[in-house]
Structure prediction request, 313 residues.
Amino acid sequence: MPELYEIATLIERKALGLGFSACGFSTSVQLTELEPDFRNWLSMGNAGEMNYLARNVEIRLDPGKLVDGAKTIISLAAGYYSDLPDHIPGNPRISRYALGDDYHRVVKSLGHELLGWINNEFGPANGRVFTDSAPILEREWCRRAGMGWIGKNGCLIIPQQGSWFFLAEIVLDIEIPSREKVVQNRCGNCTRCIEACPTGALNGDGSMNPLKCISYLTIEQKSHIPDHFSGKLHDWIFGCDICQEVCPWNKYPEKCTISELLPRSALAEMDSESFRNLNSSSFVKLFDGTPVLRAGWSGILRNFEFLERKDSE
Ligand code: SF4
Ligand code: SF4
Prediction:
């Protein structure tokens, strides 16, 4: 059996071989110091219609409640940026992350492959894989693992790689020491994301008011979009990438190496007319297997009509 620090190197090498862009390790502990702020944030109504955020707060703050005997969080980042076109200018836009196959399936499956390999090499190990699929503070574990910092746009920023990543975790009952130091926040005096956000959703300290964020309004919010956002959604029909697009740390972004996550040309090439001609069954057929299905046909139709209304005013 290799030494513990060698195990970390071998796991990282395997993760990169599977297509992940970065991998880090942190000790599983209760994040009790984050509890007051999180509960305060909830009590101010910031979760909006995301009722799931108020459930399982204790689990969210303690990975030991997700895996018995949890000792290590392996954090994984899978890049999804590519140079392929992601939209036709002037037409409704879909956030980059949603133009390919659903990351829940793709990234989780790679995480399971890694966990299986760990079990073969160093097991038996009890572990579970998550990607945006359980109450777990993904970015905070990445930060603790020394992978990067949480920028003023709320994203994990990895030095020399940017922020276009899906995050995943393996919570494991094997002890693997972290080799990295926490990366200091390098946003400095930059405020580009705050100034570029069309709805004023960013608070400036890495937190945001999700109820103002276009991603929330176009995906999570099921009721109508308030009128005062008219003209502020730009062309976004599903999600929003503005605060990542303007970030200087994304000038030379890490490129996606997982083919299933690349944008499907049929989606990147959609124009207003294509959206106008959709119906519930053609919507499901076209977006089958992508995260866009999450909004549902009624959600996409509502968003499209909201954008069209702006154009006709
Ligand atoms: S995703 Fe868009 S709306 Fe949301 S904070 Fe970023 S720039 Fe603002
Ligand atoms: S745009 Fe500037 S302030 Fe915003 S996350 Fe990037 S570096 Fe930080």
